[in-house]
Each structure stands twice: as C-alpha cells, then as structure tokens.
Write a structure and sequence with these properties.
The chain is an alpha+beta fold. It is 22% helix and 12% strand. It is built from one helix and two strands. The protein has a two-stranded antiparallel sheet.
Length: 78
C-alpha cells in the first residue's frame, strides 16, 4: 500500500503530491479522510484503545530498573 497526499482540483480530479507506480487506465482505490468532522465510530475505537492501555499498564505494573535491561537500545530517547 502506498500513502500519497493529494490536492482536490475539482469534485472528480485529484493532484497527487508525488507520482505513483501505476499505468494509465489502472483502477486505484482512494480513501478520503474528512478532517474536522467528529466520527462516532472513531471515538468508540479511541475509547476502547484507551481502556485496553489502561488495563495493560495499570497501577499494578511493576517498576523495571536499568539493571534488568538485557540489551540497551541505542535509539531510545532520540
């Protein structure tokens, strides 16, 4: 899957921000995200995600010390 930003030229034409590898006449699928509109289903997914994270990382989560780390991640904190 390729994610490409596009500008709406008119109601039936888009101007891509960069070329895509597709031959002329090929059918592609476009997913439109309408910014600024509240989506009830999205809000439900966000609430479910937050509840799952809260359950996974609750107050009973143990504290891990630096001495317990087996291999340091050199990219951590950058």
């Amino acid at each position: 899957m390729v994610l490409v930003e596009a500008k709406v030229v008119d109601s039936t034409h888009l101007e891509l921000s960069k070329p895509i590898a597709a031959r002329q006449g090929l059918t592609v699928f476009v997913s439109v995200v309408e910014l600024g509109q509240k989506d009830a289903e999205r809000q439900q997914w966000l609430a479910a995600s937050a509840a799952s994270l809260q359950a996974a990382y609750g107050e009973s989560e143990p504290d891990y010390s630096a001495s317990m780390v087996r291999e340091n991640n050199p990219d951590y904190g950058t």
